[in-house]
Amino acid sequence: MNKKQISIISNNTKSFFKIANEFNNKDYKLMICENINNVINTDLDLLLIDTNIGYEESIYAIKKIRNNFLEGQVGIILCIDKTNIENLKEYIEVGADDYLLNPFTIEELYIRVINQIRLMNAEKKSKMKDIQFNALLNNTPYMAWFKDKDSNYIKVNNDFMEHSGKTMEQIKGRGDHYVWDGNIGDRCREYDLEVMNKRKQVVFDEVIIGKKGYRQFNIHKAPVLDGVDEVIGTIGVARDITELKNKDAKLQMLMDNLPFPVWLSDTKGVYLNGNKQFTQYFDINIDELIGQTPKRIFLESYVKEIYKKNEEVIKRREPMKFEESVKTHKGIRAVEIYKTPVFDIGNEVIGITSALVDVTEIKEAEKEIKKQALTDALTQISNRRALYNYMEKETNYSKIGMMFVDIDNFKDINDCYGHHFGDEVIISVSNRLREICKDIFLCRLGGDEFLVVFKNIENVNIICDKAKEILGKAYLQKNNKNYDFSLSIGIAMGDCIVDVDRLLMKVDIAMYKAKELGKNKFMIYTKELEDERNLKLSIEKDLGNAIEKNEVKLFYQPQYTVDKKLKGFEALFRWQNDKYKNVPVIKIIEVMENSNLIIDMGYYIMREACKFAEKINKNAKEKIIVSVNISPVQIMDKDFMSTIKSIFKETGVCIDCIGVEITETVLLKNIEENIEKIKELKDMGIIISLDDFGTGYSSFNYIVKLPLSIIKIDRSFINGMDLQDEYTKILRLIIESAHSLNLPIVAEGVETEEQLEKLKHMNVDYIQGYLFSKPLEEEAALKLL
């Protein structure tokens, strides 16, 4: 341990030697000097001054020490005679700390030295604490202060003085009424009293008007207690939170201007803040929200889900989106909730921000769009897309039955009555189907086509019964009038795992077969029907390039007078393709008519027949008529007349050598237009024959309506003569009626002499049949001349 340095200034050094020796043997090092200059530059802790050196010299020594050493660094004790006691006051005033009256003992001096050093050490510690406290106080980034029990300031820091605009001298001993502007003084005193009375800290926010204007502070006040636990005042710190509050205000303004609810919660789900939209959406005051949990707002059944999703966001540490239904004062709403974790500076999740977007209207619109996407706009029943969705879901049923319903001649209904009427017919059919097929899937495939799906059905008869009921009553009632129409129905059965399109194809095949058989019927799909359909498709495909492949050939069957005089030929189509050699010609012609191939094929046949007519009439003594069968489909072609005329011109044929054979079917559609075209053909000199009279829709009314030249009796009547007399009677009536109208008769299919003889007696004009000749190739026909 370092010894304390003590110096003695005296002009009587001998008297202090003994003292010096005593002190040097203890914890001190004592040095005797004659004047102050000998000690001023030494390390000194305590100075003893023998005032016998003189008054002036003593004053000088005291001042010298005080000027050259820090306050409290060196203690000064005077050794003074009673005769000089009158100067003691002046010595103390200039800096002396203590004194001893001469004479004194070593023990007395020792006690005084110890006490002085202890006092100096205590002062040093006190000053150090004061320095440290001031350093702490002034380096605190907040306003800080001490007050006494009367709320007068004892000490404040630099930040306090800066905000108040006053110095420590101005502030010390004054209260808040003096320090701050405005009426803050009373409130500050109230908080001080609360702190002292309750003996605990209080925290509050306060707006204070100071040198920097209006500033908002977060203030902490606490009581100050003495050594006996008595309150002697208060201590306080105030943090300037103006910028923070401004940021909070801006953030709140930003949040409040968001068009959707936003809120902040801690990791336990406790609400910390929310915007205006949030409180309005859930009809809750912001003060009621803060500190509350989701139970305050959400349904109990959803609260657990909220906590679960919060935990998921915290665990994954990334934004997440959830779709939920929540209960509000407007009812149950569909919402999307976007949750984002909030991190502290240590990258730990400390909360979650949530944003809610109400998608109720969007979901309802999507639902409506989805419904519309699966609903037929006209009938409000399901559509084709809904069918596929339905079939995809119904995979747990072992059997599926389908019924395909199609309105017969719907195009004609539209053409005749207009599309609005056609729509009413479609609606009428859909209502009829809905009534009969309750709780059974029903859809409109498009146009005039409907489909009914029966699930888990084992017996096709159940579907057939429904089909009969549907066919039994099909009409539209409008303006107190019933408009009848018919339906054709196709039925098919299949496993649910069968391709939907495959089942649709089956019912389509069956439905079209029902139409072929006269319409207003239902048909059940069979493999034979599909084979028949496939054959037609194959024929249609291969007929498309039959002319290019030179597979189309014309045969000519002669027509004779009853006395076997050649009168003309009927040009007959033949398709020389081994693949279809067993298919009846009439079946091939049906395919051509149904596919419109008949138009181009018909013009080709007309062209070839005209060439033949030109050839055979070159060497004929009498005019030979070459007749060509014309389909109603050809006649309805918009280019029919212009193309026929072009062919005549191209081939150079004599027009009156050409005949056209038509059937009554030309009067089933576009009656007036078709009759006009036939008249034009006749006016050109073409022979017009009514073919197959006596079959189908045959009526004497057609003979009157059409501009005919000849009537051809169907072979069925010729064959019937051998079986029943009624055929002979009817045939005789037809011949007599035609002759009365100056129309010659051609009997088709004459194969026996007996038939010929009967026909002669009935005055038939011309004979065509195997009795005279089978159809001939062109070369053989030309040789008949």
Automatic annotation (TrEMBL):
Classification via Pfam families: EAL, GGDEF, PAS_4
Residues annotated as domain PAC: 189-253, 316-371
One of the protein's GO biological processes: phosphorelay signal transduction system
Positions of the EAL domain: 536-785
Domain called Response regulatory: residue spans: 5-117
The keyword Transport belongs to this UniProt entry's keyword annotation: no
Keyword Phosphoprotein carried by entry: yes
Domain of life: Bacteria
Domain PAS: 247-317
Modified residues (4-aspartylphosphate): D50
Chain's role: May play the central regulatory role in sporulation. It may be an element of the effector pathway responsible for the activation of sporulation genes in response to nutritional stress. Spo0A may act in concert with spo0H (a sigma factor) to control the expression of some genes that are critical to the sporulation process.
UniProt xrefs under PANTHER family: BIOFILM ARCHITECTURE MAINTENANCE PROTEIN MBAA, DIGUANYLATE CYCLASE DGCP
Protein name according to UniProt: Stage 0 sporulation protein A homolog
Record organism: Clostridium gasigenes
